[in-house]
Write a structure and sequence with these properties.
Layout: H1 11-64, H2 68-111
Coiled coil: 26-101
Keywords: Coiled coil
Amino acid sequence: MALFRFRTRSPDRDLQTDVSRFADIKQTLNEVCAEIERERDGFQRRYDEISMNAAFSLENMENEGETEKVSARIEDFTLALERFTQRIAFLEKQLAFLQGVDQSVTEFADKNGLWQADAVPNAPA
């Protein structure tokens, strides 16, 4: 009588599911890190551009004398540079955190044999 018979999945199928899940986690982490790097690089380019504009404005002010317009422009540049610096620093902080998460995922997967995808039929590489 098969009244209390339980069916379970095969260990290979479970391993395949786990490998796939951790591959998805790694891929998502890589994508988010790439997004953060693109944003950081964009802010860095703008920072460099504004730094150059601020330097030219300061040089102009030194050569032609201080005017309200140039002084206000330099103040705007300074505020923008401060905001960019803060944003870049926070993006770097996020990136470091996510790289730590990625390292933890890798270590967990290594310790539990989840990167041995070639041993599992139809597992993602």
